[in-house]
Every structure is written in C-alpha cells, then in structure tokens.
DNA sequence: ATAAGGCCGCATGCGGTAGT
DNA sequence: ACTACCGCATGCGGCCTTAT
C-alpha cells in the first residue's frame, strides 16, 4: 500500500515478508546526522532530494550494521517519523511551499509563519494544517475530518497550549504554535521553531529547499511487518506517549482513506466505523491504522482516532438543556455512555466527562481557600504520601502517585481539580502554605541528564522504569512533570534544554558540560524566571 | 487567584469472534 | 469446547484555556 501526500492511497504488493530487523531501526539522532551531512554539501535543492539521499545513507547504514537490506518502505516510514519529530522541527522551518533546512543547530531559529500551501510534501502540508488550526471558539465550525483530503483538513482540535509563549498578533491563528503539551510529546508535529517568537528572515545558514520537485510524489510505503497484535502491544517498550502530532493524525486519516477505498466504504459517512459495532466491514481498521504508527499502542491509536473521526462530534459547551438531559439519563442508563451519547447526540466520552464535572462541582466550596482548607489539604496529601506515595531513595523523598479523588473525598469541601491545582500551585510557590518540597530534584535531574548524555532526545526515550529504584515509570514521570512546572517556558524546550535549565536551578553540572549541551543542539539558555 | 469545563491519553477489563 | 485475539467502553488522572 502506498500513502501519497495528496491523500490518495494506492496498493502495491509487498516484495517479501522477512521479519524486520531491529538493526534496521535508526535513531532520530542518526537521521539528523544524515540530514546535516547532506545539507553541508549543498546550498539548495528539494526536500525530496534530501529524503532520497538520506534514505540511501540509511540503507548503507543498515547494511553496515548487518541488518541486511531494509524492508520495502521501512526507511521511508522512519523518514516520515523523523520529519514529524521535534528534532526535525529544529531543522525545518516552513514558509509557504518552501522548506528551509537549517544547516546547524547552534542557535535559535527565527520563526517563520507558515503560509497556505497546496499539495506540497507532507511536511509543508502539516504546517499548513497547523496554521489553519483555529482558536477554541472556532472549533465547532470545523468539518468532521472524515471526507476531507488527508493533509488538507487537519484541524488541530485544541488551541495552542502555551500560556507562557510569546506570540505575535495572531488574530487569524497565523504562526499557530505546535502543541507539545508537555515534555512527553516527543513528536509535536514538528516545527517547534515556527512557534517561537517571530524573527522575520531566514537565518544566513539556512538552506532553502522546495518541499517537493515538480512531478515528484512523496510516497510512503508501509511494511506489513509493523503490525502488532492488539493485546500484546502493551508489552512493547519503544512506545511513544503524549499528544498525537498532526503528522500522526494525518497518518490515521490517510489510513482511513485507504481502508475505505479498499473496502468500498464511504469516507464522508463513517457510520460503518462507529455505529456498526465490530462489523466485518470495519474489522481490522484500527489495527491497520496503528501499523502505520509503530511507536504508538493500538489502543492509543484507536482512542485518538475515534475522538478525531467521530462523526460530527460537537465541540461546543454543553447547554443547560443537555445538562438536564444528562441528569435524567444517567439514573436511567447508569454508565452506558454510548447509549446516553446517542440520545444526546454527543460523543460518549464527552458525556461521561461532562457528567463527572457536573457531579464534582456540586459538592465543593468555591472562592478563596481558607487557611484551614489549605492546611487540611497539606495534611491530607502528606498523610497520603506517607501511606502510599512516598518512596525513599537515598534519603530523598519523591512525591506523586496521588489519588486526587480520594484526597478530595477526605478533604470534604474541595473537588479533585481544586485540590490538584492547589497542590501544583503550591509547588510553584503560589500558595500561602509552604508544602514539603521535593528534595530529590537534583538527583532526578542528574539521572535524566545522564540519559540525555547517552543519547536520549525525548522524554519517551528516557528509561523511566529503571531511573529510580522501587519507583515505577509513571510515578517518576509525574515527578518529572512536577519539576518542570517550576520551570517557566518548559513546554517550549527540548529535553536537553530542559536539562540545562534544571541544572542551573537544581543541579551540579559544570559550566563546561552545560556549554557542550548547548552546542549540541539547544537554543540559548534564558535566565530562569 | 479561582472556577469551570473541554478535551486528551492511558490502563483495564469485558464481550464477541476467529482459530484450533 | 477451548483459547487467543480483537475491538471497544469505561474510569480515571490530568492539562490547558477562558471567564470571573
């Protein structure tokens, strides 16, 4: 099967079915090397040319590693993933139909607002999609993506999430930032540079390329072997977590289109996918789509895709009438949210979420927290941590793994969100009550830094599981997130940059080490807030 | 500072289905 | 009949934005 950047998909025969070799999997770092080397040789060209050369180099590398000849399409897929990664975003700045590849990473990129593009390469298409992402209020006007050409209609359903991000006048959503919601979004859909404060020209060492050459098609061939059993992929270790990038969403859209074509199903009416449960028509679709996203779990693809493709999913606030209906329907149907959703004309998950909020807001105090309430929260959290969450490692205490529903129940006057937000604020020094600080910050930073030194470029490449003894990955990551809360602008930073910043505040890394890190790819380090 | 609430991503478990 | 797998719904924790 072939996915083309214009959204059309054709079927080709797989040449062979040999099992994929792990040796054929090249790291983003490796791809980056290829690209930089190619860029150093020329001053202009097309993205397709760069791709072709990079693929050649990659194939060579595979042979040298003893991985044999890569499977048909395997490297193209890796290339696509590389392009959608943050590391590629550092290399790429999209400007209309042109793609500028930065030849070095020694400085921060000037942001160049993406302009409308036609059916250029996938990268330009993604940027254009992002550019079209509208503010929250406008979302309801967006069409359901079912029948839209892949890469053309890719509404970023969520508004940009960077409160700290300086942005120019963006009444029209121009230069809309990508959405790396947290450190966990390894691939943001790219173009982190494009979301930065605008500089108006292309830096001198930027290479100007066209997205594609006339007549060239950006064809991605997906290997059959990337398929994973639904139930077993939970055992995978190289899984990407966090927000789906636009590139990933586009892959799902393209997969949908292919699947529909192949099976004679409509793309403008997706009832076959959502209403005919387990129908033979739709059988295998999600598995198929997930195959194109080998770093994602099938269940994650399924959920993200469902929410993205759900026909006419309303993205407007629940009306009072709908709330009343919910209150009537829930006693009647219990938690049969699909049924409730059908009656309300809403997506089931939205109904469940809405009801949850309705209920939780009924029983809590509002307004300013009293000192007594804050103190009570502090006591409860500390008790909770003593009972469940505290792990002692080298005389350091880690907080997290807090069940906020439970805390809220015990607290009595505040709901889970209020408690959670209050606690997080306290860690940012916004509370009148001083909570126990985590004294393990330095150790945590140093351990993550060690992984960065060892080649990890993203949070999802960090081996969280083994990072802290007797502490599972989820809790360590939560701890990490808490730490980042205290770092202003962390959302806009790459992992190495975060390390530099964190070490400035908490760590012991030498100046020389910091400089080396920066030279290695980070933007200039700003003074901590 | 706080409330409100939309929406996301993940884990889990269950019922249906295909394979033996 | 038994088993493994598929597809999905649900519950939950949490992020982020907007309004007050």
How much beta, percentage-wise? 5-15%
Average per-residue pLDDT, rounded, comes to 56
Q: How many strands appear in the DSSP assignment?
A: 9
Ranges where pLDDT stays below 50 over 5 or more residues in a row are: 1-23, 93-227, 389-400, 428-439, 507-529
Rounded to the nearest angstrom, the distance between the terminal CA atoms is 50 Å
Question: How many structural domains can be distinguished in the coordinates?
Answer: 4
H and E string: EEHEHHHEEHEEHHHHHHHHEEHHHHHH
- The total of helices stands at 19
Which strand order do you get reading across the main beta sheet?
Answer: 3-6-5-4
Organism: Tetraselmis sp. GSL018
Biased composition (Basic and acidic residues): 510-519
Domain HTH myb-type: 311-363, 365-431
Biased composition (Low complexity): 143-156, 167-180
Compose a concise summary of this entry:
InterPro entries: Homeodomain-like_sf, Myb_dom, SANT/Myb. The protein is mainly alpha-helical and 529 residues long. The protein has 19 helices and 9 strands.
Structural write-up:
It comes from Tetraselmis sp. GSL018. It holds the Pfam family Myb_DNA-bind_6. This is Myb-like DNA-binding protein REB1. The N and C termini lie far apart (50 Å). The strands form 3 sheets. A 4-stranded mixed sheet has the order 3-6-5-4. Strands 2-1-7 form a 3-stranded antiparallel sheet. A two-stranded antiparallel ribbon has the order 8-9. The protein has 19 helices and 9 strands. It has helices at 28-41, 47-65, 74-83, 86-91, 122-132, 246-263, 271-274, 285-291, 298-309, 320-333, 337-344, 348-360, 371-389, 404-411, 416-427, 441-453, 473-485, 495-505, 511-519; strands spanning 2-4, 9-10, 44-46, 92-95, 98-102, 206-210, 219-221, 391-393, 396-398. It is mainly α. It is flat. The chain folds into 4 domains: 2-222, no CATH class; 320-360, Homeodomain-like (Arc Repressor Mutant, subunit A, Orthogonal Bundle); 371-427, no CATH class; 441-519, no CATH class. It binds a DNA duplex (20 and 20 nucleotides) through helix 9, helix 12, helix 15 and helix 17.
């Amino acid at each position: 099967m072939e996915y083309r950047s214009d959204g059309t998909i054709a079927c080709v025969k797989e040449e062979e079915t040999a099992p994929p070799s792990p040796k054929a999997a090249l790291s983003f770092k490796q791809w980056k090397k290829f690209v930089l080397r190619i860029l150093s040789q020329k001053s202009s060209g097309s993205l397709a040319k760069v791709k072709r050369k990079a693929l050649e180099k990659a194939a060579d590398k595979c042979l040298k590693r003893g991985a044999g000849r890569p499977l048909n399409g395997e490297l193209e897929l890796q290339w696509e993933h590389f392009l959608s990664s943050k590391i590629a975003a550092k290399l790429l700045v999209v400007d209309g139909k042109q793609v500028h590849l930065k030849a070095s990473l020694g400085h921060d990129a000037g942001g160049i607002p993406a302009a409308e593009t036609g059916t250029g390469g996938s990268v330009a298409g993604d940027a254009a999609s992002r550019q079209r992402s509208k503010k929250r209020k406008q979302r309801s006007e967006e069409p359901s993506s079912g029948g839209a050409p892949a890469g053309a209609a890719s509404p970023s359903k969520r508004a940009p999430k960077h409160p700290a991000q300086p942005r120019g006048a963006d009444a029209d959503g121009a230069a809309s930032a990508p959405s790396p919601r947290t450190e966990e979004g390894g691939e943001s859909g790219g173009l982190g540079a494009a979301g930065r404060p605008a500089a108006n020209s292309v830096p001198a060492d930027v290479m100007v390329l066209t997205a594609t050459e006339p007549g060239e098609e950006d064809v991605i061939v997906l290997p059959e072997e990337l398929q994973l059993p639904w139930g077993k992929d939970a055992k995978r270790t190289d899984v990407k977590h966090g927000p789906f990038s636009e590139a990933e969403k586009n892959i799902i859209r393209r997969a949908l289109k292919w699947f529909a074509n192949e099976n004679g199903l409509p793309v403008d009416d997706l009832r076959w996918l959502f209403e005919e449960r387990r129908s033979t028509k739709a059988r295998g679709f999600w598995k198929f789509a997930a195959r194109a996203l080998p770093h994602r779990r099938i269940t994650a693809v399924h959920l993200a895709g469902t929410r993205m493709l759900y026909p006419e999913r309303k993205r407007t606030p629940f009306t009072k009438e709908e709330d009343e209906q919910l209150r009537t329907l829930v006693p009647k149907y219990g938690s049969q949210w699909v049924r409730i959703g059908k009656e309300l004309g809403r997506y089931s998950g939205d109904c469940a979420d809405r009801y949850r909020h309705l209920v939780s807001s009924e029983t809590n105090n509002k307004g300013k927290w009293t000192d007594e309430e804050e103190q009570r929260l502090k006591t409860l959290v500390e008790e909770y941590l003593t009972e469940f969450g505290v792990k002692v490692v080298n005389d350091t205490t880690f907080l997290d793994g807090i069940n906020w529903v439970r805390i809220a129940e015990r607290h009595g006057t505040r709901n889970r969100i209020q408690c959670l937000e209050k606690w997080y604020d306290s860690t940012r020094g916004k509370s009148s009550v001083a909570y126990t600080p985590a004294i393990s910050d330095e150790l945590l930073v140093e351990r993550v830094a060690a992984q960065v030194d060892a080649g990890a470029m993203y949070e999802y490449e960090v081996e969280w599981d083994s990072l802290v003894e007797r502490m599972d990955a989820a809790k360590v990551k939560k701890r990490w997130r808490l730490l980042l809360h205290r770092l202003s602008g962390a959302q806009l930073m790459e992992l190495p940059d975060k390390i530099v910043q964190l070490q400035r505040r908490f760590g012991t890394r030498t100046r020389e080490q910091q400089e080396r890190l920066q030279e290695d790819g980070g933007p200039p380090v700003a003074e901590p807030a």
